Amino acid sequence: MMASSAKGYCGLALILSLFLAGCSVNPLPPATVQNSLTTSVDNYQYLIGPGDSVSIFVWRNPELSGGFIVRPDGKITTSLVEDVPVSGKTPTQLARDMEAILSKYIRDPVVTVSMTGFVGPYSEQVRVIGAASNPQAISYREYMTLLDLMIAVGGLTEFADGNAAKLVRVKDGQQRTFDLQLDNLIREGEISANVDILPGDIIIIPEAWF
């Protein structure tokens, strides 16, 4: 009986190993590189993204005004028009688009768009992974620096190797990696180690080996 069970386990292990080997033949392609529309700290404009709360005011037409949540597909549905694409646009761009859309139904529409909740597209968020106290994705804010970002994630863990941290940034469709001196910045107070952060940046913080 035990011999039969052992043979069964061996057969199952063989089938599982063959299955896993077959799965590894065709690895998934790497993630699509998404360029941020912000290339310097001086030209930043907030872009609407999924999960954002958008308030659309149509002058003299309160029935067409209202608050909307951007769907995961980057669109909203208004009282007159379904599936209005909004993700990746500034509030001003969306206002002009809504005026063009509503001009089919009312004369000379005047639209104002404001934001009541901020998430932004993934391409505009900043991510901190690894040995941070609270690694997470954060919505970029104008003139955000590395120090601001590390305060937002609670700093480094006890075992973080901050001076081995890397910043990954997409520029001209290519991912580029830069060295960071987080130990010097946070633990030694060397403000010269502070650098500007741009939307889409990824901070990778390894742990020390000893």
Automatic annotation (TrEMBL):
InterPro entries: PEP-CTERM_polysacc_export (IPR017477), Poly_export (IPR049712), Poly_export_N (IPR003715), Soluble_ligand-bd (IPR019554). Residues 126-178 form the Soluble ligand binding domain. It comes from the Bacteria. One of its GO terms (molecular function) is polysaccharide transmembrane transporter activity. Keywords: Signal. Residues 1-27 form the signal peptide. Pfam families: Poly_export, SLBB. Residues 42-115 form the Polysaccharide export protein N-terminal domain. NCBIfam families: pepcterm_export. This is Polysaccharide biosynthesis/export family protein. It comes from Rheinheimera lutimaris.
